Amino acid sequence: MSPLNWYKQLHYDHADLDLSEAYNVANQVMLNNLRLKDTQMGIQAFLNKQPIPDWTHEDD
Fold first, then answer.
1. What is the pTM of this model?
2. Is the dihedral of CA 11, 12, 14, 16 positive or negative?
3. Of all helices (H) and strands (E), which one includes residue 33?
4. Within 10 Å of residue 20's Cβ, how many Cβ atoms?
């Protein structure tokens, strides 16, 4: 699942949670996204002022 789809799903999954629990769920999703190959490529491209990478949409 792409990071964008993860965030869309996050929005729907925590809509009925109280604020504290919603923050906890969102925090976990963001931490999981940091492990994705696309996220790492995007961060490196940004830091190195490189063009946007070709996204793989792989989970590893």
1. 0.64
2. positive
3. helix 19-34
4. 8
